[in-house]
Prior knowledge:
The chain contains nine helices and six strands; from the N terminus they run βαββαβααααβαβαα. By secondary structure, the chain is of the alpha/beta class.
Amino acid sequence: MSAQIVFVHGWGMGPDFWDELAAQLPEFQTRRIDLGFTGPEDERLHSASLEPAIYVAHSLGTLWALQNHSTSMKGLVAINGFACFQNFVEDRVLRAMRARLKKSPEAQMRDFWDTYGLPHADGLNVERLDQGLEWLAEEDATAALQALKCPVLALAGQDDAPLPLDRMQKQWAGFDLQICAGAGHALPYTHPHWCAQHIRTFIDAL
């Protein structure tokens, strides 16, 4: 039986964020966790407990997966990911985003998506998006990351604006970190083939 991959998207995204990357990995069984930031309420999936699998997470999804599913991980691939976002941004920035999200959610999200080259989504869940910003401001999964018994691979963009490379190198010190030249914060969307190659090599080595 082929390995199962569980995809966990980042803040402001939905499960369809993984379409391009999943298409590059047809030989693997895949599941997608929906954190409920976008899409029709009645179509949002619940992140129930899963069987042991290889987790492929983007951005905030890495933090969330470490906090909630570290014991289910047979391997972790963190793409533009982190265990603690407090190492990358000042709290005032997140406070400003939360204030604008409540006042003008469509404008806040449109600017976020356009700034970082991310696809737009419909059906904003403002309350859940605000909760996600709270996670970014307060949660720290460093201990869970360090306690992992499974292999870990981090994939980073050389020009990732919210996650500067020098800080990513500190964040993933001691782990395998691969860097995509000229890429930003949306690697699974902009460079799915590059990501798939590294994921496939990572899984083959397990």
